[in-house]
Every structure is written in structure tokens, then in C-alpha cells.
Design brief:
Number of helices: 5
CATH superfamily of the domain at 13-64 and 97-127: Ribosomal protein L13
Radius of gyration: 17 Å
Largest sheet: 4 strands, parallel
CATH class of the domain at 13-64 and 97-127: Alpha Beta
Low-confidence stretches: none
Strand order of the largest sheet: 5-2-1-6
Helix content: 25-40%
Mean pLDDT: 96
Length: 142
Amino acid sequence: MKTFFPKKETITRKWWLVDAEGKTLGRLASEIAVLLRGKKKVDYCDHLDSGDFVVVINAEKVRVTGKKMDQKKYYSYSGYPGGIKEKALKEMLAKKPEEVIKKAVWGMIPKNRLGRKIYKKLKVYRGSEHPHQAQNPQEYQI
């Protein structure tokens, strides 16, 4: 018996279309992370990038539970003393809803070279329009 490892040439990638409208942020992000890593594939291998491309639309219509709209904070630091800034989830969804989903997914993939390569296959858009029609993405139901 021999262990099978997929080669880079044999990995097939699909394009998935995920509609974030009415979906809970954390549950949506974990499903997207699984698709990006390819963990639902038969030939999944944790040291290879065997995942698919994911296009997320309607990012501004994602929902959260509880009081997270006011209490969840996003921090950015300039590197200078006193240079830390914080924004509430409500502000982030108003200004940059794509970043909310991207940051949630980034927290669920590995923080290494492979994770950065996987993260580049995530495409998030504010409205229902996206420039990836030529790839014929299949709808993914979450």
C-alpha cells in the first residue's frame, strides 16, 4: 500500500459563488475557509494548495448576532506611539464591508506562505455584480 499525494498538475480548481446576504459572519467565513483550503475534496493534502476560488457577493448584507455591531472592534496600528485606531463593526460594514469578510476568513486559514497563497483566491464584492462571469462560478449554498 502506498500513500497517494496529489501533484500540482493534477489538482483541479473550481470557482464558487457565495451570496452573503442574510448569512451569519462567522459561519460564512468558516465555510469559505474550508472551500479555499480544499478540505472537502477527496485529494486534500494539508501541505499543498488544493483549494478552489471563492467569489463572495453582497458583502454589505452579512449579519451578526448579539451586540456585535457596536461591541466588535477592528484595530489598526501605524507603528507610531499613539497610532492605534479602532473602528466598530457598524462603521466597517458602512465603509468597507469587503474587509469584514476578508478579516474573518484570514483568521481561519494558516498564517504562513501557504495561507497567503490560499488567501489570494478569495474575491469579495460589495454588490451582486462581480467581474468573474467568464469563470462560470457555481453557486454554493451555505
